[in-house]
């Protein structure tokens, strides 16, 4: 079954720089930053007071308000992005309808979240403390748990294939896509809805990351706060949203006349076995995942044209990720174009890998590589070509997405021009 080829036929985005793939991509290419002062709650007492908030999102465009109240925001984002992905793939939203082009029991849903329904948990904990246990919502658990994203998506469309979540912090969506890739490769499904969603712009979420001193404190200059690979970077900027792909087996896609956007050819995963938050020194863990993905893809380092790096704008990630790329690609590391789109979007945590894999696909499709914005002062320890500040044009045949998560989780997905 491993001879089965897997292609991308649909994509969907909810993000702080646009609530569609087209808006998202236009912002990335033009370096239009979506970060700003927090409006969700009063953050005046917090070290960090900026974020990448989704704007102009109206859930009533996707479902009745009564139904939406049963879903945490991360789940609402997942549904909205999945709707766009399904429509762009040309797959009906009702898979059980007679005569449809896709069998419901051959559609997997593998969608994750790094944290899940944190706002729901925070709200209900307040009720518990103020009003007692009898006032807790019976929807607390189903709204909070991560796997409600794929559960809701499957119920919405009638997708009866394999259904589960990965939870690997900021590597979540990348792992989800990779596991969906293998699910189709081994014949367990023909189509998969996959990616990640996140919405953790809450008091408890900010408190935790602020206590870790992981986020940028450029509160007076949010547009320039996220500065991946720049010497003066001082932390990431938290964002929210969802990035969802529809992927499917090649012959299945061709049979129904689908528009093929790219082919997924490689996936690698590894563990650092080192530290709860810091990547392994030297980037050794991420390099192993990268080499694994290259091996499965049957590619050499010289075949890689573009890397969408994890590039969080934190001191250790950007340094060790640079070292990982050098370990994985050798001399070619200095020739490949690399960018982190987190300067524009902020860090979507469990959604990041979905958004950034879509960026890779669009780079292949358009021949444009989005820039790493806010790159002003080179760091001697980050000395590769990060496509600073301005997009570049070149035919991209092979693109790589790298995502790394707390706990030492590393994931790499390789996408290729479909031929």
Write a structural description.
Helix content is 33%, strand content 18%. It has 419 residues and is of the alpha/beta class. It has 2 domains: 6-255, Thiolase/Chalcone synthase (Peroxisomal Thiolase, Chain A, domain 1), CATH 3.40.47; 267-416, 3-Layer(aba) Sandwich (Peroxisomal Thiolase, Chain A, domain 1). The strands form 3 sheets. It has a 10-stranded mixed beta sheet with strand order 5-4-6-7-1-8-14-13-9-10, sandwiched between helices. Strands 2-3 form a two-stranded antiparallel sheet. It is globular and about 60 Å long.
Q: TL;DR of this structure?
A:
By secondary structure, the protein is of the alpha/beta class. The chain contains 13 helices and 14 strands.
pLDDT average, as an integer?
97
Radius of gyration: 20 Å
Largest sheet: 10 strands, mixed
* Structural class designation: alpha/beta
Report the portion of residues in β strands.
Answer: 15-25%
Order of secondary-structure elements: EHEEHHEHHHEHEHEHEHEHEHHEEEE
What CATH architecture of the largest domain would you give?
3-Layer(aba) Sandwich
Label the overall shape.
Answer: globular
CATH-defined topology of the largest domain: Peroxisomal Thiolase, Chain A, domain 1
Spatial strand sequence of the major β-sheet: 5-4-6-7-1-8-14-13-9-10
- Helix share bin: 25-40%
């Amino acid at each position: 079954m491993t001879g089965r080829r897997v292609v991308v036929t649909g994509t969907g985005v909810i993000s702080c720089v646009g609530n569609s793939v087209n808006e998202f991509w236009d912002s990335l290419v033009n370096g239009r930053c979506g970060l700003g002062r927090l409006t969700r709650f009063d953050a005046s007492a917090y070290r960090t007071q900026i974020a990448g908030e989704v704007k102009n999102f109206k859930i009533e465009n996707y479902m009745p308000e009564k139904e939406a109240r049963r879903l945490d925001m991360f789940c609402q984002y997942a549904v909205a992005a999945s709707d766009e992905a399904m429509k762009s793939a040309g797959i009906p939203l009702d898979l059980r309808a007679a005569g449809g082009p896709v069998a419901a029991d051959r559609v997997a849903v593998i969608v994750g979240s790094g944290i899940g329904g944190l706002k729901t948990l925070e709200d209900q904990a307040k009720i518990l403390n103020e009003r007692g246990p009898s006032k807790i919502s019976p929807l607390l658990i189903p709204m909070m748990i991560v796997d409600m994203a794929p559960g809701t998506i499957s119920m919405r469309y009638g997708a009866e294939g394999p259904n589960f979540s990965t939870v690997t912090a900021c590597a979540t969506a990348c792992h989800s896509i990779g596991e969906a890739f293998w699910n189709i490769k081994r014949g367990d499904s023909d189509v998969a809805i996959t990616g990640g969603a996140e919405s953790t712009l809450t008091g408890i979420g900010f408190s935790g990351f602020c206590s870790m001193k992981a986020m940028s404190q450029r509160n007076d200059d949010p547009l320039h706060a996220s500065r991946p690979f720049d010497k003066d970077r001082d932390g990431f900027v938290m964002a929210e949203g969802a990035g969802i792909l529809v992927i499917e087996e090649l012959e299945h896609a061709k049979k129904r006349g689908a528009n093929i956007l790219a082919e997924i050819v490689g996936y690698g995963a590894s563990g650092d076995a080192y530290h709860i938050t810091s990547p392994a020194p030297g980037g050794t863990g991420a390099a192993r995942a990268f080499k694994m993905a290259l091996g499965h893809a049957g590619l050499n380092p010289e075949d890689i044209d573009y890397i969408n790096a994890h590039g969080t704008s934190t001191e250790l990630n950007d340094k060790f990720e640079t070292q990982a790329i050098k370990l994985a690609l050798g001399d070619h590391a200095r020739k490949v174009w690399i960018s982190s789109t987190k300067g524009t979007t902020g860090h979507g945590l469990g959604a990041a890998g979905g958004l950034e894999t879509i960026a890779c696909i669009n780079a292949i499709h358009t021949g444009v590589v989005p820039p790493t914005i806010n790159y002003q002062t080179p760091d001697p320890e980050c000395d590769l070509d990060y496509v600073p500040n301005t997009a570049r044009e070149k035919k991209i045949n092979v693109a790589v997405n790298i995502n790394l998560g707390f706990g030492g989780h590393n994931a790499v997905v390789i996408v290729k021009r479909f031929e």
